[in-house]
Design a protein that fits this description.
Two copies of one chain form a homodimer.
Chain A (H helix, E strand, L loop, with lengths): L2 H25 L2 H7 L4 H8 L2 H23 L7 H18 L1 H12 L3 H5 L5 H19 L8 H17 L1 H8 L6 H20 L5
Helix pairs in contact in A: 1-4, 1-6, 4-6, 4-8, 5-9, 5-11, 8-9
Chain A binds a DNA duplex (30 and 30 nucleotides) through helix 1 and helix 3.
Chain lengths: 208, 208
DNA sequence: TATAAAAGTAACCAAATAGTTACTTTTTGG
DNA sequence: CCAAAAAGTAACTATTTGGTTACTTTTATA
């Protein structure tokens, strides 16, 4: 592929990512993607074959960014357990804040019963994350008296649940929170709360 | 409106709820809704005016079910604070499990920047919920030494976040959890974990 | 039971949309 | 510098889709 073609291809990808994340597969129009990319529609079919394959390509790219984050999460650094846990939660929230297209594409994907997610066998990093969190918990057990029921799985569900939901449902949450949920200080409060809650859970309240 | 008309109208509503929750506004086809309801398409326009108004009607109906739950949540019963908190979380999880169309419609709605949610000024019950949770917290303060940073807002975000996300993202979570997330014992484990975590947070680990 | 109103339908339309074909322009290597 | 290959386009098609119109059937009641 020539230089010019790569530039054009990337322009299509950029535009299509925004379109698909905003409107989903059904809501997006190939004509509109072509127009916004300043390109003839036929070129999209030449490069990507079909609307569906274009969508798949975009989803893989966007999901890969999250996979990269997960690889960071498994070896999170910090002086003690709490600061490592804080960093873990912070990295997750920060990623979600800075990657709204990921949040939206994962929502579309879940509404579509994770069709492409399953097809491409993504989510295999998850067991790696669980192992990493398990090791983190082992370290916690040296510092604190961790209750038996505390598992990496439950903690991950809590962090991912609180994190993802904060951003995915912000439109319907906005109203009742009143605040600007994307405001840095509000966000910091939320992160602090999640960290402290998890710490209380893990340490049985004897963390300080 | 005659008896027959009401039956027909309800049949359309039932079918449309499934269609819209499964495929969203753009993915749903008026023709298909008409076919599945065993009705001529023109009748849908006679009753509801447009595809958009039909969607709005459905969304209001589905959201009202959640509003009803919230009215239950504010006056949750129980012997002590922990059992009331448990009941609160249980009711939320149970509702989400039994109302998959609500979960999906709220996801569509959030992807649509809460257009109808805002238009219809839904979510006004949220401040009522916050007040209810505040009163629950006041009761907790009689029993336990509750840290200052603990607020109704943060607890609600945690419960709603963990609850909603568990169901909304189950398709992409399934893979890494391995289990059947809808299995009663797995679900009970999750609820227990959320309750215990919140209790540890609120009581500073001195709940038992 | 006659009739008016309500319930319901067949068949159509205009616009939109995914995808294709035959063509022109640009780039590059010998 | 020129021919072949790659990049890119204009204009088309078949189908789908939201929406409408003119019509028939059913129901209730005076």
């Amino acid at each position: 592929m020539q230089r010019r073609a790569e530039v054009t291809r990337n322009r299509i990808l950029e535009v299509a990512e925004i379109e698909f994340s905003e409107k989903g597969f059904y809501g997006s129009r190939v004509d509109e993607i072509a127009n916004k990319a300043g390109v003839n529609k036929a070129l999209i079919y030449k490069y990507f074959g079909s609307k569906e394959e274009l969508y798949e390509t975009i989803f893989s790219i966007v999901y890969e960014r999250f996979s990269k984050l997960e690889r960071q999460l498994i070896s999170v650094e910090g002086l003690d357990f709490k600061s490592r846990m804080r960093r873990f939660v912070e990295l997750d929230f920060l990623f979600l804040k800075e990657n709204p297209t990921y949040v939206r594409m994962l929502m579309w994907e879940n509404l579509n019963n994770a069709k492409y997610y399953k097809e491409k066998r993504l989510g295999n990093t998850k067991s790696v994350i669980l192992e990493g969190l398990d090791q983190l918990l082992d370290d916690a057990k040296k510092e604190f008296d961790v209750p038996e029921e505390v598992t990496a799985k439950q903690i991950l569900l809590t962090i991912y649940g609180c994190g993802f939901n904060y951003f995915s449902n912000s439109a319907t949450m906005m109203g009742f929170l009143g605040d600007d949920m994307m405001d840095d200080s509000i966000l910091k409060e939320r992160i602090d709360s999640v960290v402290n809650m998890i710490m209380a859970y893990i340490t049985g309240g004897k963390s300080d």
